[in-house]
Amino acid sequence: MTYVIIRHNSSGMGDLTVASDGTRNQATPFDPMMGQLEVIEPGLAMFHGFANVAFAYGRGEMLAVDTSSRAMGAMAVKAIREITDEPFAFLIYTHGHGDHAFGTDAFLEDAASRGFRRPKIWAHEDVSGRFHRYAMTRGWQAQINQLQFGARAPVDGIFDEKSLRYADLAYRDYQMLELMGEAVELHHARGETDDATWVWMPTRRTAMIGDLIVSSLPNTGNPNKVQRFTLGWAEALEAIARKRPRYVLPGHGPAYRGEEACQELLIETAHALRFIHDEVVRRLNAGQWPVEIVEANIELPADLAAKPFLAPIYGCVPFVVRDVIRCYAGWWSGEPSAMFPAPRRERAADILALCGRDAVLTRARMLRDEGNLQRALALAETALNADACDREAMELNADILEKLAARERSFIARNFFAGAARSLRDRLK
Ligand SMILES: [Zn+2]
Predict the structure, then answer these.
(1) 242: CA distance to ligand 1 center in Å?
(2) If exposure means fewest CB atoms within 10 Å of the residue's CB, which of 71, 108, 203, 214 is most exposed?
């Protein structure tokens, strides 16, 4: 048996190796700017970059599912060009996120330089609305993506209208394409995004599904992003499972091989989402306010929590809980003081007037030293809210945030903590 080492997901999102029998192990992190092509079987390949690109080829023309990011599109093209000279008939976006649909120029340039006709770009009809929204809010998009992916993320200009490659052709619910006579089905889903497409190639029994699988707990409820769809995500995975794929090629993480492994992946991920969804809905129906549901600390059952493909290494359960709450409830937490909140600076000053600044900082340090980092942060943040220039409070906040980042498994939460600490350290300089 050959042992394929796939290094992907550099930034802690997967960091797995996978053997050709589908077993997975933790591996060392790798450089995000490296990509690697894996041939799944003749005519089927996947490029592993920050996000993956799936290729079907071998009968005269090929298709690519996703085009990777602005930085990695050319790497994906170069990698597949070492395997085949076939022209691209289609480029299909699984959704409009930048790590999946912003590498298109490299594919179009490849066609032009080889004298091939320009490939047709297919996407769900809501991808264009997403692109317009990105262009309209490009400053905000740059800010939140830089924070989410860490300071290294290149974001300059990538959300500008002129750099977005809109689809040539869009569909609503279902679309059938033909690749040299072979059926290619596009199915719409609402999961990580409202504009998701999963691709089914029935003769190969292969599902190319973008971020409906991210090889970790599905990232619904991303703290800075628009509404996601926990229940729709579960339903999409169940629909894919009903096709009984032999291969599942996801947007992030390893390729999944064999009907049994694919069923487990799809069904158990759907179970996890349905479990959290149903628990939140039960609590809402019982009259609980969002703040009470958040404080209930809902957890997955142990058997689901132990699945390697549900590890909370990108998103995490509390984010999913927030997504479900937001899907069915408004913005109010249920705390009366939060309806028209007094300014943070005034509320913090009231606390400090009662106990004194030094006592607040002392207690925050004590909680930190006991490992109660969230409570320590709440107090340290109160001191900083009362006086944004208090250097000792800044120092303490940065220290607690760094400790929170060091123990945090979720890539997104970790980057938020580390980013907040970094900006305090910058101000202290
Ligand atoms: Zn993605």
Answers:
(1) 24
(2) 203
Task: Tell me, in angstroms, the distance from the centre of ligand 1 to residue 233's CA.
Answer: 14
Residue pLDDT tens, the chain, 429 long: 222 333 333 333 333 333 333 333 333 333 445 789 999 999 999 999 989 999 999 999 999 999 999 989 999 999 999 999 999 999 999 999 999 999 999 999 999 999 999 999 999 999 999 999 999 999 999 889 888 887 666 677 888 889 999 999 999 999 999 999 999 999 999 999 999 999 999 999 999 999 999 999 999 999 999 999 999 999 999 999 999 999 999 999 999 999 999 999 999 999 999 999 999 999 999 999 999 999 999 999 999 999 999 999 999 999 999 999 999 999 999 999 999 999 999 999 999 999 999 999 999 999 999 999 999 999 999 999 999 999 999 999 999 999 999 999 999 999 999 999 999 999 999
CATH fold of the domain at 16-272: Metallo-beta-lactamase; Chain A (3.60.15)
Is residue 152 left, alpha or beta, with left meaning phi > 0 and alpha meaning psi from -120 to 50?
alpha
Q: What are phi and psi of 180, to 5 degrees?
A: 50, 45
Q: How far is the CA of 174 from the centre of ligand 1 (A)?
A: 22
What burial class does residue 406 get, using C-beta atoms within 10 Å of its C-beta: 0-12 exposed, 13-18 middle, 19+ buried?
Answer: exposed
CATH architecture label of 342-428: Alpha Horseshoe (1.25)
> H helices within 387-410, ranges in order?
391-407
386: CA distance to ligand 1 center in Å? 39
For residue 131, give the H/E element and its range. Answer: helix 126-136
85 CA → ligand 1 middle, Å = 27
Distance 52 CA to ligand 1 centre (A): 8
Q: Long-range CB contacts (< 8 A, 24+ apart) of 361-367?
A: 361/392, 361/393, 361/396, 364/396, 364/400, 365/396
36 vs 52: CA distance, rounded Å: 9
Quote the ligand 1 centre to 219 CA distance (angstroms).
10
pTM, two decimals, is: 0.90
419 Cα to the center of ligand 1, angstroms: 21
All structural domains of the chain with their residue ranges: 16-272, 342-428
